[in-house]
Specification:
- By secondary structure, the chain is mostly helical.
- Helices cover 66% and strands 0% of the residues.
């Protein structure tokens, strides 16, 4: 079921309070916000609420991490910007002779994009240390 365009801002605003996990202090508060969303919009959009309820154990797994780790996990601006730059290059080229030609172009564009990244992630050292504790079997730090 699709959300009616004129109701999208209101529903998006309520979803923000559920999924904005970088700022949400506890899973209980997020669950209360999900309950509020269901009471406001559950009758109109039962499939949307059903999907959130069905997937809540996976969605709420973010709350096992602290605020800094959640912010890194939740932020997609870097990824979206990267994809936007890749699309801009491929869109202007038209057709490619082969898949290899496309892959070579994407590799070169990716190199140029990454060369421009010079802004560090806020609190990265603390976040990396916390991730190494949580995922000690997968992430080894050479200190």
């Amino acid at each position: 079921m699709r959300v009616v365009l004129k109701r999208l801002p209101a529903i998006s605003y309520l979803f923000r309070f559920i999924i904005c996990v970088s700022d949400m202090p506890t899973v209980n508060l997020a669950e209360r916000n999900l309950d509020q969303l269901e009471s406001n919009w559950g009758a109109k959009y039962p499939k949307v609420i059903e999907s959130w309820r069905k997937n809540w154990p996976r969605l709420s797994s973010y709350f096992q991490y602290n605020k800094d780790v959640r912010r890194i996990m939740y932020t997609t601006n870097i990824i979206e910007g990267f994809h936007r730059q890749l699309r801009a290059v491929t869109k202007s080229k038209g057709a490619f002779q082969s898949e290899d030609a496309l892959m070579k172009l994407l590799f070169l564009v990716q190199e140029n994009i990454c060369a421009k990244w010079n802004k560090p992630v806020h609190y990265w050292n603390q976040t990396l240390a916390q991730l190494s504790i949580i995922f000690s079997d997968r992430l080894k730090l050479n200190l």
